[in-house]
Amino acid sequence: MDFGKYRYEQDQKRKESRKKASNVVIKEMKFRPKIDGHDYETKMKHVERFLGEGSKVKLTIMFRGREMAHPELGRKILERVAEQVKEYAIVESAPKQDGRNMTMVLNALKKPGPAKKPKPTAAPVASAPATPESALPLTNEIPTTEPVVATAPVAEVIETPAPEAAAS
Question: Does residue 27 contact residue 55 with C-beta atoms inside 8 Å?
Answer without folding.
Answer: yes
